[in-house]
Write a structure and sequence with these properties.
Layout lengths: L1 H23 L5 H8 L53 H13 L11 E3 L2 E9 L5 E14 L5 E9 L3 E5 L9 E8 L5 E8 L2 E9 L7 E8 L9 E9 L6 E10 L5
Antiparallel strand pairs: 1-2, 2-3, 3-4, 5-6, 6-9, 7-8, 7-10, 10-11
Amino acid sequence: MIRRTWALLLAVVVVVAGCGNDAEEPEVPADAVAAEETVDLDEIPTVVVPTPTPTMTPTPAPTAIPEPTPIPLPELLVWPRFEPEVWPSTPDEAAVEFALQVARGEGVAVPRPAVQSEMTATAELPRLTEDGSPFGLATTIHMQQVQLDDGALVWVVISAQSEDIVVEFPAVGELLAGGTLVRGEGNGFEGTIVFQIEDQDGLLGLALAQGGALGQNLPFETALPFDQRPASGDWATLTGFTTSAVDGSISSLTMLPMRLVDGS
């Protein structure tokens, strides 16, 4: 009886042990394992990453440097009023040649370097001491760039003005044929200021005016007659100047372009 009981108990233990193993490790179908280990590459979607397009910054076109627009030779100018062999190609050259010609000698000061602004320029003509040293300001030379018939760009003097000789009448370009009244203010050695009308061939008329002295401007007025018509027919130059007490050279100069406004 005892043996049969032990046999039954042993059978129960074996059955319970078998059931426990089945719960812990369930049987997995073979096709399921294969499905986990095998990956179909054709079914994976392809992700296309767009390649960034490089941004090209446009290169700005080079800025063209505008060429100076030449203007014709002005009718109203004071130098040169003739056809020179060589026209000055720079404002400095024009200022130096003008100073030498209007002073009529080597006693004139050398102009200071010209200050240019596009097609116009100015240069200062200093005074001279007794020993020839430059100082102060005698005359300001006004210049302009023009174009000749052959296309060459040259420089001419359109006026020269001194604070010692200020002409109020006649206005630039309004000279009466046969004579004019010259009025303004200025100063010179012993108060004397010389006025003259010139054309490209030389002197047409001359007069003296009495202004201030010792650097003090005083009003002046003088009649300046001339009978001969300018060689150009219409154009002339009104020149006022003072001379040095040392050597008689020109110390201050004003030159203005004029045009005859009536016939004679």
